[in-house]
Amino acid sequence: MRVAHLGDSSAGRELVEGMMGAGHDVVKLEDPGDLREFQALVVGVGDARLEATVEMLESFVFDGLIVIHTCLSRGVQVLDPLEAHGVVAVAAAPFAQKRWAISALDELGETIASLIVGEMGATTVEYRDTERPGLAARVYYARMLRRLARHADLFEDEPPELLGNVDSEEIVAAFYAIEEPGLRRSYLESARRLGEVELREELELWALQEENK
Amino acid sequence: MRVAHLGDSSAGRELVEGMMGAGHDVVKLEDPGDLREFQALVVGVGDARLEATVEMLESFVFDGLIVIHTCLSRGVQVLDPLEAHGVVAVAAAPFAQKRWAISALDELGETIASLIVGEMGATTVEYRDTERPGLAARVYYARMLRRLARHADLFEDEPPELLGNVDSEEIVAAFYAIEEPGLRRSYLESARRLGEVELREELELWALQEENK
Question: What are the CGL2689-like C-terminal domain coordinates in residue numbering (chains A, B) (predicted)?
Fold first, then answer.
C-alpha cells in the first residue's frame, strides 16, 4: 500500500514506522494535491490541530481513501467531514505495549484497522469516541510518572520501551478531560516536574499557569 | 543459622523471607532476653525508631552476634553502640530488583552480607553511610511514581514485582534528605496522591502539612 504521512506526533510516527516495518511504502505528504497517488493517509497531528487539518484535507480526499488519525484523546467522528467524501475513517492510537485503541465508523474501518495493527504484531481494543479523552488522560499520566521514575533511579532494569513517548501538547490537551480533583492536581504536578527534568519549558510553564488558576 | 526477627518494616520482612527461602530458621523475637538462642538478629524497624531500638538492644547483644538493620535511609553507624559489644554490624536494604544496598563496619560484615544476599539470588552494592539518605529518597520517590502509574492504567504488562513496597513512615523519613526544590515538591505531591489512592491517611496528611509549610 502507498501511504501518505502528515504531521509529526509521536503516535503518528509510531504508526508509520510500524507500517513501513510491515512492508508498506510510506511517504511524507508534502503537498495535499499529491494525495491521489496514495491508498492511505496517516494524519499524525495532535489534538489541538486535528479539526483544522481535517478541514484543510476536505478538498483533497476521495472515495475509498483510508484515513487514519492517531490522536488517542479524540474519537473517529472528528473525521466525519472526510467520511462524507467516501473515505474509510479510522482512529488508531497506541495506548499500551503492543495495544492500539481503535475507533471506526463502520465494520470496514474496524477490519482495516485490525489488519494494519495486526501486521505490526500488535492487537486492537475498540473504544467508543466518548471513552477516549479519559483514556488518554490516564495513559499520559501513567507515562509521565514512569518517565519521572526512570529519571529518578537509574537502578531498575525496566525496559525503556515500556516508557512510551508522550508529546507535551497531548499532555496539555488531555488534561481537560479529568474531573477528579486529586488526579488533576497530581497530573499537573507530574507535567510540571516532567517539564523540569526533560527540559520541556512550554509544558512546565503551562502546568505552572494551570496550578495558579 | 537461627535468626531472630524484630520489627515489621517491609524491608525487614523481605530480608527474613529471603533468609527463610535460603533455609535459615527465622523466629519473631518476642523477648530480647531470648537473643542468646540466636546467631543473627534482623532489626526490621523504620528510620524513626532505629536509635531507640538499638538502645534497647544494647544490654542483650553479645560478642559474635550478627546484627543486620534493613533501613535504606540509614548507614551502619547507627549500630555503633552494639558494635562496642562485639556484634558484627551490617546495614542491608533492598533498593532495586535483586539488588541490596550494603554498608558494613569491616570486611567481616561485608563478607557476611554478601553471603546472605547471595544465598537469596541477589547481589550487593556497597554504599557509604553518607550516601544512603539521598539514595533512599530517590528510590522511594521512584517507587511511589511506579505505584501511581500502575494505579492509573491497568493496561501495562509491567510485572507487579517491579513495583516494590514502600512504607509510609520511610517515605516521610527520607524526604528530609532532599535538597532540590523541584524534587521536594514532586515528592510531596506523589506522597499525597499515593496517600489518596492507597488510602494511607497518615501519609496524605503529612504531605499536606509539609506542602503548607
Answer: 165-210
